[in-house]
UniProtKB/TrEMBL annotation:
Lineage: Bacteria, Pseudomonadati, Acidobacteriota, Terriglobia, Bryobacterales
Coiled coil: none
Pfam families documented for this protein: HTH_18
Record keywords: DNA-binding, Transcription, Transcription regulation
InterPro entries, per the entry: AraC_XylS_family_regulators, Homeodomain-like_sf, HTH_AraC
Database matches in SUPFAM superfamilies: Homeodomain-like (SSF46689)
Protein name in UniProt: Helix-turn-helix transcriptional regulator
HTH araC/xylS-type domain boundaries: 171-269
């Protein structure tokens, strides 16, 4: 299933601090701190109580948004990368994983080679000025949050609503929608995928997703349109045609109604972000 999310949804800061003494604070955004330099012994403390924590290169810490970030003290030079994730990115990945509720756990000195590798890759790509392209960075960010939610969150998979679609059927029909956004996907065609009658399918889909099939489809088309507007120079009229909108005006009106932005404004925002290479938002 091809998933999309709003690009420019993280920021990376590369820091080097000698003899650090950082006070306890609150994380404004979900943050990951990657140890870049060699091993270091850090004293980590909450509410004035400290413990010794050896940290090796590639280890990282997680601080969920709104959580307390422990105080940290160390001797000598330490280089680390702070990656902050936007709520929109995290929620988009959670939606793709069908996680209706989840809670990230604050953790220190985690050794997860997959996440460590992804954090290093994101850092290098940002520091190099995105030499591999924004799409590459977006894909790494998506993989990072996916791994983070799967391995380091307390998550609850949604219990099927009585009469709702099973997870298998819901995934099957939404994948079909995602792969055929340009098509005229009527209720009969979607219901046939599940083997249900049109009325039964419509009710079950709404119970499972919270919105009717046509509303879900519109949301996915608008999300794909915004992604294409922000990441490509494709003419607006071609994007409208490729995603099943009647014409450019149809796309413009719906985008404005649902997001408050015109296609031109989406592109202008993207261009503004491109002019600030240190921040992706």
């Amino acid at each position: 299933m091809a998933s999309t999310f709003e690009p420019r949804s993280l920021s990376v800061s590369d820091l080097e601090i000698d003899n650090g003494d950082l006070a306890e604070r609150t994380a404004p955004l979900t943050s990951l701190v990657l140890q870049v330099s060699g091993p270091v012994v850090v004293e980590i403390g909450l509410a004035g109580r400290f413990r010794t924590c050896p940290i090796a290169s590639g280890d990282f810490c997680v601080a969920p948004a709104g959580a307390s970030v422990p105080a940290a003290r160390w001797r000598g030079s330490r280089r680390f990368a702070l990656t902050e994730l936007s709520p929109r990115l995290i929620q988009s990945v959670a939606d793709s994983l069908n996680l209706h509720s989840f809670e990230l756990r604050p953790e220190q000195a985690i050794r997860d080679p997959r996440i460590g590798h992804l954090l290093f890759a994101i850092r290098e790509e940002v520091l190099s000025g995105y030499t591999s392209g924004r799409a590459y960075l977006d894909s790494i960010a998506w993989a990072l949050v996916t791994r983070l939610l799967q391995g380091h969150a307390i998550a609850s998979l949604p219990k099927p609503h009585r009469g709702g679609l099973s997870r298998v059927l819901f995934r099957r029909v939404t994948e079909f929608m995602e792969e055929n956004l340009q098509e005229d996907l009527g209720l009969a065609r979607l219901a046939a995928i599940t083997g249900l009658s049109e009325d039964h399918f419509a009710r079950a889909f709404r119970e499972t997703s919270g919105v009717p099939p046509h509303r879900y489809l519109l949301q996915r088309r608008l999300a794909r349109a915004r992604d294409l507007l922000a990441t490509t120079a494709q003419p607006i009229v071609e994007i409208a045609q490729a995603l099943g909108f009647a014409d450019q005006s149809h796309l413009t009106n719906l985008l404005r109604r649902h997001t408050g932005l015109t296609p031109g404004q989406v592109r202008a925002q993207s261009a503004q972000v491109e002019a600030n290479p240190g921040i992706l938002q």
